[in-house]
From TrEMBL, chain A:
The chain crosses the membrane at residues 35-59, 105-126, 138-158, 182-209, 242-260, 298-318. GO terms for biological process: transmembrane transport. Its main location: membrane. This is Multiple sugar transport system permease protein. Belongs to the binding-protein-dependent transport system permease family. GO terms for cellular component: plasma membrane. It is a multi-pass membrane protein.
From TrEMBL, chain B:
Residues 69-265 form the ABC transmembrane type-1 domain. One of its GO terms (biological process) is transmembrane transport. PROSITE patterns: ABC_TM1. One of its GO terms (cellular component) is plasma membrane. It comes from Kribbella caucasensis. Belongs to the binding-protein-dependent transport system permease family. It is found in: Cell membrane. This is Multiple sugar transport system permease protein. It comes from the Bacteria. The keyword Chloroplast does not apply.
Length: 326, 279
């Protein structure tokens, strides 16, 4: 833990009777105590996460339509039927899922890239101390601290065609267009989604990268300066390689978050979600709760999970191999 | 990094662009909340035609905002208290004991944090409905269902962060307390917890923020009786007139407590959130 490690003294010199395993030496209760301490956490995780996930996998194999929601044990077995419906790209349900998947891929890749670039730009700009630095840092944290829906609602207002500030600036102030574009319906919806999601997410990239920058020893930069390396080269040769472990985790986390983003489309579009902004979590949600066909929804969720696991696996494999070679 | 002229220009440009990007929405939120209704129904204006506080008064009447506020507060506070207490116990076990299943527990708990919520939304909803049918315990449409759900959302991260904090507290301190006659729990209460106070505060704020801002489960598990702010604010747009000034006022009011809490504990929090990646 970077926050506290500096407070921790070095390993204690071997004092008599002061072993690391002191707590466990107590007879009786001591052996069971850790399990007792974990029990509430384990029970709750089981109830809210693990069991529902297993149930979700089971649900994806039964015909769980609205007739069986209150009496799920009577739902007939569907085999792979739900999956066949979900990936049959010739019918409406499968086609919708495929389109939503495509939109989500584009949305996540662009949002993660933008968030990373902005976070990096700001972290580097704030690297050397200057007056007002901590104020700027605090200001940049506000989008992260704000409840997600409050920020997104504000963007919803800003993106209104006739009363929003975005069109006011673009059309009235800058004169970039003669007619006022729609931002929340039609094909611009994806741009809106990316903007709003980036507004919230880049701050997290900034936070993480800034903490990462602090751990780079300053003499590395001084030595490079003596050798005549300019700022850009220092960034490429020192900053980027030093941040590599941070970046690996950061990009993965950002990707997993954006790929399953629900808040942004839900609060931004409400029930009138445009096809261009149909992110996958929102799509599954609608597919399940509009038709109350939980079986197909569960199959889609499982497919999403499998996809994310494969991507994560490949990502870890590729980056891990490259690390070993380096 | 040398502060060359080029770097200073770069810094000024980055601060200007990102400063505007961050500030404009906050500015819109703040000024629009002080506008009369006609200002937000016509083309956008940078400044209210006349400053008014009526949106802050009317917002409580347009939708039952007070009830949403009470619901959100109760749900978030109770979920936070339980989440922090449970996380402290679990983190103490992970940090101070070597026991069978320790690694399995840590990795399983952390990986649940990474799964998309929609994955357990449907089954959890169904489980709650069926628990209700078989035992009469109502979990959908009640605060208790939300509390149980939310407290698990912050649990993995809280356990992980607190365990890190506890690790940094020298074990001799616990042992000194135990020599003085405390049991392990006494050592936790009298030595470890006081020393880990910043971590506990940061985790509490994180838990509160998680519960206060949650949308997905709230949209399914709340009915009018237990509706929280995250979905309650959407009720404004179901009115025949969309009162954007009131919506902005409400968004401002619901943000203030969390933003202040977050900024106060910023230092501990930021260090905690980012330490995993840095380490």
């Amino acid at each position: 833990m970077s926050v506290a490690t500096h407070e921790a003294p070095a390993e204690p010199a071997a004092k008599p009777g002061n072993t690391k395993r002191g707590l466990e030496r107590r007879p009786g209760l001591g052996r069971w105590l850790p399990y007792l301490l974990l029990a509430p956490a384990v029970l709750l995780e089981l109830l809210i996460h693990i069991i529902p996930m297993l149930v979700g996998i089971w649900m994806s194999f039964v015909k769980l339509t609205k007739f069986y929601i209150a009496n799920w044990s009577a739902a007939p077995w569907a085999g792979l039927g739900n999956y066949k419906v979900a990936v049959d790209f010739d019918n409406a349900i499968g086609e919708g899922l495929l389109k939503s998947f495509g939109v989500t891929v584009a949305f996540s890749l662009i949002t993660v890239a933008l968030s990373w670039v902005l976070g990096m730009a700001a972290a580097v700009a704030l690297q050397p101390p200057f007056r007002g630095r901590s104020f700027v840092r605090t200001l940049f944290l506000v989008p992260y601290a704000l409840p997600a829906y409050a920020g997104i609602l504000t963007w919803n207002f800003m993106l209104q065609r006739d009363t929003g500030i975005v069109n006011h600036i673009l059309v009235d102030n800058l004169g970039l267009s003669t007619d006022r574009p729609f931002w929340l319906i039609g094909s611009n919806a994806l741009i809106s989604l990316i903007t709003v999601a980036t507004w919230k997410l880049w701050t997290f990239a900034f936070l993480t990268l800034m903490a990462g920058l602090q751990s780079i020893p300053r003499d590395l930069y001084e030595a490079a300066s003596v050798d005549g390396a300019g700022n850009l080269r220092q960034w490429r040769n020192i900053t980027l390689p030093s941040l590599r472990p941070v970046n690996l985790v950061l990009v993965l986390v950002l990707f997993l978050w954006t790929f399953s983003d629900f808040n942004t489309p839900y609060v931004l579009f409400g029930t009138a979600q445009p096809p261009a902004g149909d992110l996958i979590t929102f799509h599954i949600y609608n597919a399940s709760f509009l038709t109350w066909n939980f079986g197909t929804g569960a199959a889609m969720s499982v497919l999403l999970l499998i996809f994310l696991m494969i991507v994560t696996g490949i990502y870890l494999l590729v980056t891990g191999r490259r690390s070993r070679r380096a | 990094m040398r502060e060359t002229k080029g770097f200073k220009i770069y810094r000024a440009a980055v601060l200007a662009v990102l400063g505007l990007f961050v500030l404009i929405p906050l500015y819109v939120m703040a000024t629009s909340s002080l506008k009369p209704l006609r200002d937000v129904q016509g083309p956008f204006t940078w400044w209210p035609s006349n400053l008014t506080l009526t949106p802050f008064v009317d917002m409580w009447k347009t939708v039952p905002l007070g009830r949403y506020f009470v619901n959100s507060t109760i749900v978030s506070v109770v979920a936070t208290v339980f989440s922090v207490a449970i996380a402290i116990l679990a983190a103490f076990a992970v940090s101070r004991f070597r026991f069978r299943g320790r690694t399995v527990f840590s990795t399983t708990v952390l990986s649940t944090q990474m799964f998309p919520g929609v994955l357990f939304l449907l089954p959890l909803f169904l489980i709650f409905v069926n628990i209700n049918n078989s035992t009469g315990l109502q979990l959908v449409g009640t605060r208790i269902g939300l509390i149980i759900t939310y407290l698990t959302f912050s649990l993995p991260f809280s356990i992980w962060m607190l365990a890190g904090y506890f690790d940094s507290i020298p074990r001799e301190l616990d042992e000194a307390a135990m020599v003085d006659g405390c049991g392990p729990m006494g050592a936790l209460g009298r030595v470890v917890l006081p020393a880990a106070r910043p971590g506990v505060i940061a985790v509490a704020i994180y838990s509160f923020m998680t519960a206060w801002g949650e949308v997905l489960f709230a949209s399914v598990m709340t009915t009018e009786a237990n509706r929280t702010l995250s979905v309650g604010l959407r009720q404004y747009s179901t009115q025949t007139n969309i009162y954007w000034n009131q919506i902005m006022a409400a968004a401002l009011i619901v943000s203030v407590p969390v933003v202040i809490g977050f900024l106060l504990a910023q230092r501990h929090f930021v260090a905690g959130v980012t330490s995993g990646a840095v380490k």
